[in-house]
Amino acid sequence: MNPTPLCLALLLCTAAVAGPDAQPRLSPTRSRALETELLDAVRKVGFDQVRDWRHQGERIAHPPNVDVAVIELDAEGRPVAAANVLLSRDYPKGKTVPIDPQTLGTQAVRFTRWDLERWDGQKGWSDAPAGDDLVPGREKAPLRFMAPYPASLFKILIAYGVMKRVDRGELTLDTPYRFLRDTVDKGERPLRGWLEPMIVESDNGSTEALVKLLHERGAMEELNAEYAALGLGTLQVNGTSPVTGRNWQPGSIHMTALDTARLFLLINGGPGVLWRTREGRAVTAAELSEPARNFLKKLLADQGYAEGLSSTLVCGDANARPGIPTAVPARWLAADGTATVGGTAFKRDTRPCNAAAEVEFLHKTGQTENYGSDAGIVRALPGKAPRHYVIAFLSNLGYRYYDEGVAGTANFADEENGFPGTVTAIGFTQSIAELGRRVDEAMKQRSRTNR
Predict the structure, then answer these.
(1) Is the separation of the CB atoms in 310 and 422 below 8 Å?
(2) Which of 129, 18, 152, 160 has its CA nearest to residue 427?
(3) Cys-Cys crosslink for 151: which of 123, 168, 243, 371, Cβ 3.0 to 4.6 Å?
(4) How far apart, in whole angstroms, are the C-alpha atoms of residue 378 and residue 388?
(5) In this structure, how many other beta carbons lie within 10 angstroms of the beta carbon of residue 402?
(6) CATH architecture of 60-449
(7) Mean pLDDT of 219-225
């Protein structure tokens, strides 16, 4: 039925009142359902069953610290639901985090800096001092959580900081930069030549160059304040070296899942106000120009490590579990379907999983021995079941933790090469990929039922 002129006028007036800066409106019903689904997924993947190389392959002594957030988006990129779940020895069955529908953030968690000695039992679990707080003023928050080091996921913080300077006209993507790592000349490239390898293959040398560049421009001191002004106070890069661009330390570099998800929401873009800070500032996609956001999204789409929340790099391996159904970008593939990324050959034919891909996952992974993370933007491929969401996962599940199926490859006498991931190239416990699959299935189902 066509609208009458009066109805049409009312619709236009309503749209005008809402306007491009309209307050984001999360659906309480959708958010409650998403909380239930995310909590159920975290409980079912078996994080408590992973094995610990540092304890001779015994099962992990405590539930790992897992922080996962999902923001559901409509087709245009507006947030419509959000959920955040914490898992730790404090919350062994998982705990949903209260989220403010206007800020898309939370004040309900006292986040503290990661302390490996505290995790491994060399310090008391519950006696973190006030100086460990990532954000002050939350001493009486009802929840607490020691935030795992984000590993290479923090490189998206550096990329965002660089692109802000490009938007301001301080730099361009073609600005040449010569990287002197202390006294070692690492060569000169245009800015884009450092940004691309930092994201698409997680190149550490390129990251060092850009960290030093930000130091030289006085921007590293500004970066944390810029994130705090967006209401993303737990995104912090502290203590890096202005001489080498390195010194990336657990306990100094911080990210949490909900703040990370909102940063990816901003990069993704969308109409109107994405969220408001507690001070009332409207945060929109215009924090970055459209060319800057598109550049970052292109890098994230080309990111080669389809592992973590996905498992396409180890497609067909009997010890792999299906994850977010995304493809390995073609640039990393040989004619036989095997992938080599950042010098690591994965030696599996990814073509069956690539052909079965349902979504594009614009993401960045991070992994060290003690930490594993993955975060990004998920959007359906043409012709596939629609879904559109942001997901962020941070944990202390680095490659020291692995699954029963690869336990036979562990060599506890070889400090350098004895981890199962070194032999199998399955670096992440597949419980993370399974979480990705369960979340993606839930998001697909939500789209079908319009919950």
Answers:
(1) no
(2) 152
(3) 371
(4) 6
(5) 26
(6) 3-Layer(aba) Sandwich (3.40)
(7) 95
Contact indicator for 360, 368 with CB cutoff of 8 Å: no
Map out the domains of the chain as residue ranges: 60-449
Q: Per-residue confidence at 15, pLDDT binned at 50, 70, 90?
A: very low
Across 147-233, where does the E strand assignment appear?
176-181, 184-190
Which SS3 state, helix, strand or coil, does residue 41 take? helix
Question: Angle 339-345-350 (CA atoms, 0-180°, nearest 5)?
Answer: 30
For residues 289 and 389, give the distance between their C-alpha atoms in angstroms, rounded to a whole number. 21
- Cβ neighbours around 365 below 10 Å, total: 26
pLDDT above 70 for 84: yes
Reduce the DSSP state of residue 25 to 3 states and report it: coil
Residue with tokens 């992990």: 60
Q: What is the pLDDT of residue 24?
A: 63
d(CA 222, CA 272): 26
* DSSP assignment of 255-310: --HHHHHHHHHHHH--SSEEEE-TT-PEEEGGGS-HHHHHHHHHHHHH-----SS-
| The pLDDT of residue 22 | 62
DSSP string for 46-85: -GGG-EEGGGTTEEPSS---EEEEEEEE-TTS-EEEEEEE
Chain-centroid distance, C-alpha 123:
28
Global confidence as pTM: 0.94
